[in-house]
Amino acid sequence: MKTTLLHIKNMVCPRCIDAVRTVLEQAGYRPTEVTLGQAQLDRTTPADPTAVAPILQEAGFDVLTGRAEQLTEQIKTSLTEYLEHLRTARMPLTTSAFLTERFAATYSHLSKVFSRTANLTIEKYLIRLKIERVKEMLSYGEMTLSEIADQMRYSSGQHLSNQFRQVTGRSVSEFRRDLMPKRLSLDKVG
Known about the structure:
alpha+beta; four-stranded antiparallel β-sheet; 9 helices; globular; HTH_AraC; transcription regulation; AraC family transcriptional regulator; HMA_dom_sf; Homeodomain-like_sf
C-alpha cells in the first residue's frame, strides 16, 4: 500500500521533526511537511509504510499502520501540548474538553481507543507526563515545589508531592538529593 502520509511514533520535540525529515530525505523520499507524529510526502514519492519502517526504526521511530495506534499516538502528542496549555492558559480547558475540541470526537470514544491501545487510561498517562515535566523542573532547581504545583495546576504542593511519590516511589526531597536523577524522555512515558 502506497501512501503520502506516514503516522510516526516517538516524535516528541522539534529535534524529532528534524531527525525524521533528514532520515526520509536521505532515503530518497521528499517530505513536504513533518509535524509531531506525522510526515507528509510529496505525491511523486509515496512510500510503503512497511518499507519505510526499518529506516525510521534505526533512528528510534516507529511507523504506525493501525487506525487505533495512530489515534493513540495523536492523543499522546496532544496531551504533551495540553501540558503547555495548562501552564500558560489563564482558564485552562479540562483534559476532556481539550481532546474533544482537538479531535472532534467524544471523550468516551477517545478514552476507549486509548485505553485499549496503550493499556492505561488517558488520565494515568497524563499524570505520568506531568510527573516527568515536574522532574524536569525540579532538576533545574529554579522553582519551589509550590511554584511548580501552581504551574502544573495541582491544588497544592502537598497534592503534587503525594502524586509524585505514588508515581515514582520516591519523595520529591529524595529526587532533589539525587545527583543524577532518573528521568524518562516523553516518548517513553506510558
